Automatic annotation (TrEMBL):
<dbReference type="GO" id="GO:0030313">
    <property type="term" value="C:cell envelope"/>
</dbReference>
<dbReference type="InterPro" id="IPR017937">
    <property type="entry name" value="Thioredoxin_CS"/>
</dbReference>
<dbReference type="GO" id="GO:0016209">
    <property type="term" value="F:antioxidant activity"/>
</dbReference>
<feature type="domain" description="Thioredoxin">
    <location>
        <begin position="108"/>
        <end position="247"/>
    </location>
</feature>
<dbReference type="Pfam" id="PF00578">
    <property type="entry name" value="AhpC-TSA"/>
</dbReference>
<dbReference type="GO" id="GO:0016491">
    <property type="term" value="F:oxidoreductase activity"/>
</dbReference>
<keyword id="KW-1015">Disulfide bond</keyword>
<keyword id="KW-0201">Cytochrome c-type biogenesis</keyword>
<dbReference type="InterPro" id="IPR050553">
    <property type="entry name" value="Thioredoxin_ResA/DsbE_sf"/>
</dbReference>
<dbReference type="InterPro" id="IPR036249">
    <property type="entry name" value="Thioredoxin-like_sf"/>
</dbReference>
<protein>
    <recommendedName>
        <fullName>Thioredoxin domain-containing protein</fullName>
    </recommendedName>
</protein>
<keyword id="KW-0676">Redox-active center</keyword>
<dbReference type="InterPro" id="IPR013766">
    <property type="entry name" value="Thioredoxin_domain"/>
</dbReference>
<dbReference type="GO" id="GO:0017004">
    <property type="term" value="P:cytochrome complex assembly"/>
</dbReference>
<dbReference type="InterPro" id="IPR000866">
    <property type="entry name" value="AhpC/TSA"/>
</dbReference>
Amino acid sequence: MNNRYFFVFLSLLFCLVGGLLAKEDKAASVSKEDAEVLEALGASVGTNFYKFGFDDTELEFFLKGLRKGLAGEVKEERVRSMGPRIQAFMRPRMEAAKAREREEEKKLMANLRVPMDLEIQTSEGEQTTLGDLAKGKKGVLLDFWASWCGPCMSLMPELEKKAKKLGPKGIVVAGMNTENAGKAESVRKKRKIEFSWLVEPNGRPLSQMLKINSIPRMILVAPDGKVLFNGHPMDDELVSTLSDLGVK
């Protein structure tokens, strides 16, 4: 799954588990081949640390723990016993990472306007624009998804509930598939979707403009193109944003 939080989770998990195992098993040895693999993995995942503002001390702890702690055979019961420590270590860092990302997104979206005249195809091949969908409405709620994305598919029932609840209140709910019309139409028919079912244009211009690097992602756009919300479909902030529009 292409999810920024997944990389943070993975990095912190390896960091803590690796460090704890290193302390418990100081005699662990690493073959040359294993060392190269761990080094490459550490560099790959470690790179993501910098995206979230973690300092060099935490990064180095992660890399050392990964190389030393995961070198030997990890027994399931040992990892399970570390669950509470892993959660206690990880939760505040995850929350801090989310808070930083929200602030970055708010600054980015403050003056951004989505091109409401951009032509978008429905899964059935018809042409429309966000402006067409927004006429006479309070806003358009776009759900960016893909058929390969497990979380996206598991949230489909919630999306359908949103469409039924928000539609009569002036919010147009629309699915925005990031793959192609065939994939989108297959899901529409299978789930008997009756609300707007769109396919993002080639090159994914909206995803690039809105900095969508992980899905599922939900975007609330005002009729003038202003981005009112950009985040996870189940984020409480979406509820408060809709409330500000008089939609509850």
